[in-house]
Amino acid sequence: MRWIELSVRVDPEAVDAVANVFQENGTGGVAIHQPIDQHHALEEEPRFVGLPLIKAYLPSTEEGRGRAGRIERDLWHLQAFNLSPVGPLERAEIEEEDWANGWKEHFHPLRVGRVVIKPTWREWEPAAGDLIIQMDPGMAFGTGLHPTTRLTLIALQEHVETDMNVLDLGTGSGVLAMAAALFGAHVIALDVSEVAVDVARCNVDANDLSGRISVEHGSIAAVAGQRFDLVLANIIASVLIELSPALAASLRPGALLLASGIIEERADAVRSAFRAAGMHLEHQTREGDWWLIPARRPV
Q: pLDDT, tens digit, for every residue of 149-162?
């Protein structure tokens, strides 16, 4: 299958706005790549370099090309209003197989606490206590390299417990869901992108975790009425704000939401939305311009 790959490099302030443009025009999912110095990928604190790169994919069809044109138009309007720098939109048509192979040379094992994320095509000698996730992100999102994924992985290891019921909203490649399952949790993983759902299911199967993780297509409405001990939501700030009442309702009394994907300029708006939904904010962490904001439902 052929795909239209859209990519644009942006100032951190513009990440949310550009990601919204992609999602509103039907890409189904957005990858936000924060480049790191690969020579230091195994350090506890990777060195981030350059501006974030936002990518999305559309099928190479007449409809897909029409959506790509609307995205280009909408990005032009953002630039015209002097939003923080938005680079030129780059467009390429690629075969799925070519895309899948082209980025592999840049994906190396990454340690985040006890969790080691290992590409399926690379060797790794585990140390005592290592929990290994074998990953092939495919055309989905989430390798652990982005600060928001790392922040969530670190916090998850502090809070997840055996037999917890966990929701992973916006699962992408399934990396957070798999980490929670390796610590003994039962996980429902949701994503609005059908491509991400397929990739996450493949990764879950490859790690023999299908007994602990259910990957489904949809957003938080798909689990309306259910309550969870821990909710993971590594998605962009505007979606967190929109879904804040539903996120609060999905928590058992006393349960915790770990929300990430939040750029500095949008963090206060997310905090306000969580407070308005009745949640109490807890200790927050950041890497560069990105925040993790934990929020707890009162007992």
A: 889 999 999 999 99
